[in-house]
UniProtKB/TrEMBL annotation:
GO BP terms, alphabetized: prostaglandin metabolic process
Name under which the protein is recorded: Prostaglandin reductase 1
InterPro entries xref list: ADH-like_C, ADH_N_2, ER, GroES-like_sf, MDR_fam, NAD(P)-bd_dom_sf, PTGR1
GO molecular function: 15-oxoprostaglandin 13-reductase [NAD(P)+] activity; 2-alkenal reductase [NAD(P)H] activity
Domain of life: Eukaryota
Reactions this protein catalyses: 20-hydroxy-leukotriene B4 + NADP(+) = 12-oxo-20-hydroxy-leukotriene B4 + NADPH + H(+); 13,14-dihydro-15-oxo-prostaglandin F1alpha + NADP(+) = 15-oxoprostaglandin F1alpha + NADPH + H(+); leukotriene B4 + NADP(+) = 12-oxo-leukotriene B4 + NADPH + H(+); an n-alkanal + NADP(+) = an alk-2-enal + NADPH + H(+)
Record text on subunit structure and interactions: Monomer or homodimer.
Pfam families reported in the protein's UniProt record: ADH_N_2 (PF16884), ADH_zinc_N (PF00107)
Entry similarity comment: Belongs to the NADP-dependent oxidoreductase L4BD family.
Length: 331
C-alpha cells in the first residue's frame, strides 16, 4: 500500500478563504496494479485563482480539491508510461494517484526541451496559453498600440505584458507592490508600472496613456479597477476579460458604477473567455512560448512553496498578493 495525502474541501468557500476550508485526509492506494494502470507520485502541483470560483460549483464538501499536477510514474503496468515517466494530469490536490485509464486521465505533455518541468504548470501550461490566446486572439494588438495589463506581476499578467512588448506595443502594468512593479519594469521591459495600492488608476493612466489612448486592456482583476480603465480607452478599443480576482471573495453582487456607458461611448469590443476554448490549438501556443523563452524574449518567475502540507496557505496567498509570477507547490 502507498499512503496518499489529499486536501479536501472541509467547508464551502464563502467570502475570504481560510485554513479551516481545508482538511488533510489520508487514503491507501494498492501498489498491485491491473494491466494498463499506473501509480503516480506528484512532483509539482499548482494553485490558481480559478480554483476559488470553480470549487463553488465543482467541489462538494469532502471532495478532493481539483487542479493539475506534474507527477512521476512509480509503478507501471502500462508500456507507454514506464516507471520514471513524467506525466501532466488533472489529478487534484493529492500526493499519489492511481491512474486507471491513462489515455483519458493523462494530458499531453508540452515539448519542454531543457526547461524546468514546473513550467508545464506555468508559462508552458494553462497560464501561458491563457496569456497567449486570451491576449492575441481577443485584443489583436498591433505595433505602436498601448496595452494595459492588470495583475501584471502574476502568472498570466507577466506573460501578457511581455507578449505585448514582443508585438511592439507600449505596455502599462498594474501590480500590488513596489517590488513587483520594479520587476515588471526593469526586468520584463514594461514601459510603465504602477502600484495600484498607492497610485489611483485614473492618475496613472492620465500620465501613461493621456487623452484616452489605451487601445487594449487585458483584465485579470475586474471590479472598480476595470470600470476606471474602460474610461481611458480609445474608440474601438479591445478588452479581454480574463479574470476578476478582486470579486472572487465577494459575498454580495457588486453594485455600480457600471461600465456600459464607457463601452457604448468608446464603441469598445469587450469579450470574456475561458482558455479551454483554444485547447485544440495548445501546441501552437506552446511552440511560440518555448521559442520566446529560449530567445530570452519571455522571462518567468516562480513563487515556489515547498511541501504539500502548505498548499492551502499557498492558495490563500494568491488573494493576498504573496506570489510574484507563477505559484507552484514543490513536493
Ligand atoms: N479566463 C481564463 O481561462 C483564465 C485562466 C487563468 C487565469 N485566469 C484568471 O486570470 C487572473 C490571474 O490569474 P493568475 O493565475 O495569473 O494569478 P496570479 O496573478 O499569479 O495571482 C493572483 C494575483 O492577483 C492579485 N490580486 C489578488 N487580489 C487582488 C485584488 N483584490 N485586486 C487586484 N489584484 C489582486 C495579486 O497580485 P497583486 O500583488 O498585484 O495584487 C495576486 O498575486 C485571475 O483572475 C484568474 O482567475 C483566467
Amino acid at each position: 500500500m502507498v499512503i496518499c495525502k489529499k486536501w479536501t474541501l472541509a467547508k464551502p468557500f464563502i467570502g475570504k478563504v481560510t485554513p479551516d476550508n481545508f482538511k488533510l485526509v489520508k487514503e491507501d492506494i494498492p501498489e498491485k496494479l491491473n494491466d494498463g494502470e499506473l501509480l503516480c507520485e506528484a512532483v509539482y502541483l499548482t494553485v490558481d485563482p480559478y480554483m476559488r470560483i470553480g470549487a463553488e460549483t465543482g467541489n462538494a464538501v469532502g471532495d478532493t480539491l481539483f487542479g493539475e499536477q506534474i507527477a512521476k510514474v512509480i509503478v507501471s503496468k502500462n508500456a507507454k508510461y514506464p516507471v520514471g515517466s513524467i506525466v501532466r494530469m488533472h489529478a487534484g490536490w493529492r500526493t499519489h494517484t492511481l491512474v486507471k485509464d491513462a489515455e483519458k486521465e493523462i494530458s499531453r505533455s508540452a515539448e519542454m526541451g531543457d526547461l524546468p518541468l514546473s513550467l508545464m504548470l506555468g508559462a508552458m501550461g494553462m497560464p501561458g496559453m491563457t496569456a497567449y490566446f486570451g491576449f492575441l486572439e481577443l485584443c489583436q494588438p498591433k505595433a505602436g498600440e498601448t496595452v494595459v495589463v492588470s495583475g501584471a506581476a502574476g502568472a498570466v499578467g507577466s506573460l501578457v505584458g511581455q507578449i505585448a512588448k514582443i508585438k511592439g506595443c507600449k505596455v502599462i502594468g498594474f501590480a500590488g507592490t513596489e517590488e513587483k512593479c520594479k520587476w515588471i519594469k526593469e526586468e520584463l521591459g514594461f514601459d510603465f508600472a504602477y502600484n495600484y495600492k498607492k497610485t489611483d488608476v485614473d492618475t496613472a493612466l492620465k500620465e501613461a496613456a493621456p487623452d484616452k489612448s489605451v487601445d487594449c486592456y487585458f483584465d485579470n482583476v475586474g471590479g472598480m479597477f476595470t470600470v476606471k480603465v474602460l474610461t481611458h480607452m480609445k474608440t474601438f478599443g479591445r478588452v479581454s476579460i480574463c479574470g476578476s480576482i478582486s470579486n472572487y471573495n465577494d459575498t454580495s453582487v457588486p453594485t455600480g458604477p457600471l461600465p456600459f456607458f464607457s463601452i457604448l461611448k468608446s464603441q469598445l469590443r469587450v469579450e470574456g473567455f475561458i482558455v479551454s476554448r483554444w485547447y485544440s490549438r495548445w501546441e501552437e501556443g506552446e511552440t511560440a512560448m518555448l521559442r520566446w523563452i529560449k530567445e530570452g524574449k519571455i522571462k518567468y518567475k516562480e513563487h515556489v512553496t515547498e511541501g504539500f502540507e502548505k498548499m492551502p496557505d499557498a492558495f490563500i496567498g494568491l488573494f493576498e498578493g504573496r506570489n510574484t509570477g507563477k505559484a507552484i507547490i514543490k513536493m
